[in-house]
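User: Hi! I'm working on a homework problem where we have to compare a predicted structure to a textbook description. Could you give me the structure for the chain below?
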Amino acid sequence: MERDVMEFDVAIVGGGPAGLSAACKIKQLANEKGTDISVVVIEKGSDIGAHIFSGAVVEPSSLELLFPDWKEKGAPLTNAVEEDDFYFLRSAKSGIKLPNLFIPKPMHNKGNYIASVGDLCKWLAEQAENLGVDIFCGFTASELLYGDNDEVIGILTGDMGIDREGEPKDSFVPGVEIHAKYTLLTEGCRGHLGKVLVEKYDLNNGKDPQHYGLGIKETWKIPEQKSQPGLVVHGAGWPLGSESGGFFLYHGENNTVSVGLISDLNYKNPYFSPFEAFQQMKHHPVILQYLEGGERLSYGARAIAKGGFNSLPKMTAPGAMLLGCDAGTLNFSKIKGTHTAMMSGMLAAGVVAEVLEKGEPGGQDLVQFEQVFTESSLYTELFKARNFGPHLHRYGSLIGGALNYVDQNVVSLPYTLHDRKPDYDSLDRKSQAKFLEYPKPDNVISFDRLSSLFLSGVNHEENQPCHLILSHKNVPIDVNVEYYDEPAQRYCPAGVYEVLDKGDGSKTLQINAQNCLHCKTCDIKDPTQNITWTPPEGGGGPNYISQ
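Assistant: Happy to help. Predicted structure tokens:
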């Protein structure tokens, strides 16, 4: 097929904090030198922010470096953190409020802001466009393109107007080849192309496997008398039981709160359901005191990369770079990834801009980025937090938490713990597991998946190929049902996967791809690694604008 070709110096895949910061920094550096570097950002969401989902406390350190006058420019960071509370929930009714003195320093939030990362990205996109960056929304980057020397030379955007049988419809529009001297992958956690890049160039060689958590979040409008703008509440314990993770509740402006649960995806019990656990958690008195009498406004879910320093891959390949949460730069000790993603994008921008300004040919493996990264504050921050997740994985919330307190507050412990077991390989067989029964939703505080999905704004063109690819169609029934009672029914927060009886005693797996929130949990947690998430038609998915 003959396709249109567009040429740029730099192509950035993903309109999140890392990609937009990289775009802004490249143009700033080029403008300072009086050179012209063409930059394009490709975003699969219908608009910037549509797929950005975070109940976020944002550290402004990277923003201050990128735009020192960010306040004058009207960046949407206005709700400063005023108070930090941390709880350990012992049971469904009891909890202990821990003194701030006993909380690891990175979890303190003085100087940070409760904000919408989607709004921040929309603001960054405005700054980028003012600097001369082209931004194309509603287009997927479906494939990497390679040159004669096996270097990355750009991306192919996805064809539009293909029916579920793979045939072109009347609305068919072929994808476009976007060629670039350098392609920066900033797709967010478990990026589709990032995964391809890591495998093709063996970028994970010698590193721990990436580890993940599933974050499920709702935004509520609460009674004015319960609203405390600037209050940050974190906690651990019930209802996660022996599994690791924690909850958050952030008081925003205009009588809103963001409440959520992060469930680590190394959990063992195949009957554990992150969605049901989250709905159950909201009934705990610590949470219920704020939500009671309120109204739920939005719902969504997203995986987060939490392996940290030990799981960082080599972030460069010939003609390409892997940045932000695509590489796994989130600092789990702070439960923050926005400022680290921005910093990784800015560091990469400096390297790319310097090479292009010298007129050197594209397609190089910019290995000098390694030294730039190693000498940066980002490296120092992530190295300091390298044991945070492994402590919790190996020793649990209490002992692991105590070790993290010593490591972060008292003395840096002189060792590096590793967690070599991938999350998908952690499930017990159903014969060894305790069946977990969750209470039915009351439709006041707790809800079911389908009514929750309505509040995510999720929408896909229904007559298109299924974007959730099974390598072997028999595995879900013959293996996953047989040994794990098909955990996809429970780990998916959107009701995408259903095991149905066919009426003759056999079962089948139904995939409701139109429900997909693009959280990537199935791609991560499936115990047989039989599911591959690929991008659906551009513009499809959730709509998290201003969440």
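For your comparison, note the following. DSSP finds 14 helices and 24 strands in the chain. The radius of gyration is 23 Å. Good luck with the assignment!
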